[in-house]
Amino acid sequence: MRLLRPLIVFLGLILAWQIVVTATGAPHYILPAPARVAAALAAHWSALIGHAAVTATEILLGLILGAILGCTTALVVASARPARRWLLPVLVVSQAIPVFALAPVLVLWLGYGLASKVAMATLIIYFPVTAAFFDGLRRTEPGWLDLARTMNGTTLRTLWRIRIPAALPALSSGLRVATAVAPIGAIVGEWVGSSAGLGYLMLQANARMQVDLMFAALFVLALFAVGLYSAVDAALRRALPWQAEDGRVRN
Amino acid sequence: MGTNMAPGIAPGVHLHAADLRYGSTTIFEALDLTLPAGRTTCLLGPSGVGKTSLLRLIAGLAHGAEGQAEDETGKALDGRIAYLAQQDLLLPWSSVLNNVLLGPRLRGEPVTGALEDRARGLIAQVDLAGHEADRPGRLSGGMRQRVALARTLMEARPVVLMDEPFSALDAITRYQLQDLAAELLRGRTVLLVTHDPLEALRLGHGVRIMAGAPARLDDPLLPPGVPPRDPGDPEILQLQAELLRRLSLAQAARTGLALS
Predict the structure, then answer these.
(1) Which of A176-180, B88-92, B222-226 has the lowest average pLDDT?
(2) Better-scored residue on pLDDT, A200 or B253
(3) Percentage of residues of chain B with pLDDT beyond 90
(4) Do residues B107 and A151 lie in contact, with contact meaning Cβ atoms separated by under 8 Å?
(5) Interatomic CA distance for residues B94 and B248, integer angstroms
(6) Contact criterion met (CB < 8 Å) for A165 and B61
(7) What is the CATH number of the domain that holds A194?
């Protein structure tokens, strides 16, 4: 039933789509029928996979870079008071600039290749990761810190043994959000200027009125995004098993 | 047993003219407290009177408080105090063994085989042998508090401050833990904050009541016999009635104050 339910929902959506197409009589260059999209998917399969591999690389590299940069920033800001005073306002102001507005500049600076898209994905991921991890580091249970103080623990070891592990659940929610938004960065980057990738393919298909191919590309992208999210979610769950079990046997 | 040596001779603890204010409210001022060396002192009093604040002051954890606890020779007690709070404060991601080893780890002491053996010995002493690898999430409240006790003993500090460590437990578990604590903490200088007069009478060489605003301490009540005392002893039950009477007076004075 666990696997059946999403399948039923999926089939229901396809059916609804077909009904809309039939009822409105929309031409295929406005809204193609599901069967037409499936045909496009089959016809262009190898091209789709090739472009998807490019986009996937951009997303994964952006995710890794954004996570590393975000974690580092959060650690620096959380452990050094001067860093907090100087860096935090910059971080907050930087979030007022929509990342999409930077896309043309990034393409100008980093070119049409992989780098500008990785930079976009990194930028879009950076803030949720930083904010979530910093928040977690700041909210360490005060009792633990008191305990560390009576034990004469060093600041660095208290950070490593208590504050960082305690912040991991917060970091993992930040990483989940990051995983969900990472594809946006890559796709927008591709729209602004690229020579490969699913976003590039969608723009090309759109310009040639191949709306069925556009939908096929969208489908592949959605499939990858869902797969990536489930994989990251499962990995995080496995990495923090105490999160689920803590508080279950409290009395 | 080598695992539970009180480190050296426990010092007495002297707190002289301690002050604590929150805003315009004076919690206590010019408060003196002596904890006799190697003895357990129990502190009773209405909630909010400042018992926990006093304990934190001695532990060096109170911010904005005046006064420092010293031993008989006037030396500060830094590094000689262990602290056991009402919450067990176990790290949910660490095993029982690693929770007990937290102190050495936080100080960067190398965790040698001998140190680990000592930790395992303490875990066995609190009746948790076989649970070394379990995470705290899988333990009951009583077991968790016993791990916290083992962690406190691992610190081998001569002074132990306890803030209602058994109050969240059911009656039987609490009774067993009181016995265990009395046995394992023998010879140390202990301050135990509690709500429960019977607990104070079971465990304390001396019992003190903290009451009033600003709070003051009664003269110590010295129950007969040696802890852990039998709660069925008529003399203890009589003292319990007396303590209850004094505590309700203190509580009434407090409520009256709040109403006026």
Answers:
(1) B222-226
(2) A200
(3) 37
(4) yes
(5) 42
(6) no
(7) 1.10.3720.10
Q: How far is CA B250 from CA A187, B44, B45, B117, B216, in A?
A: 70, 11, 8, 47, 11
Whether B109 and B226 share a structural domain: no
- Among B156, B171, B197, residue at a domain's last position: B156
CA distance A163 to A187: 36
Residue B174 resides in a domain: yes
Whether B85 maps to a domain, the answer reads no
- Shared domain check, B115 and B35: no
Q: Tell me phi and psi for residue B11, to 5 degrees.
A: -85, 155
**Chain B, nearest residue to A245 by Cα:** B137
> Residue-wise over B227-254: b if at least 16 C-beta within 10 A, else e?
bbbeeebeebeebbeebeebbeebeeeb
Q: Is the dihedral of CA B224, B227, B233, B239 positive or negative?
A: positive
Tell me, yes or no, whether A251 lies in a domain: no
Interface predicted TM-score of the whole assembly (ipTM), two decimals: 0.85
Nearest-CA neighbor of B208 among B40, B16, B95?
B40
The mean of the pLDDT values for chain B is 87
**Which one of A151, A237, A238 would you mutate to disrupt binding with B, by most B Cβ within 10 Å of its Cβ?**
A151
In a domain? residue B86: no
The lowest-confidence range among A9-13, A201-205, A247-251, B227-231 is: A247-251
* Cα nearest neighbour of A146 on chain B: B61
Mean pLDDT along residues B63-75: 80
Residue B116, class by beta-carbon neighbours within 10 Å (0-12 exposed, 13-18 middle, 19+ buried)? middle
Please tell me which residue, A81 or A206, carries the higher pLDDT value: A206
- Give chain A positions within 8 Å (CB) of B107: 151-154, 157
Same domain, B152 and B237: no
Tally of structural domains, chain B: 2
Domains of chain A: total: 1
Are residue B187 and residue B245 in the same domain, yes or no? yes
Residue A8 lies in a domain: no
Query: By residue range, what is the domain housing residue A131?
Result: 51-235
Pairwise CB contact (< 8 Å): A154 & B107: yes
Q: What is the CATH number of the domain that holds B230?
A: 3.40.50.300
Q: B140 and B54: one domain?
A: no
Nearest to B166 by CA among B203, B209, B121, B113: B203
Q: Same domain, yes or no, for B97 and B56?
A: no
Residue ranges of alpha helices (H) inside A44-113 are: 45-79, 81-96, 99-110
Q: Do B107 and A144 touch (CB under 8 A)?
A: no
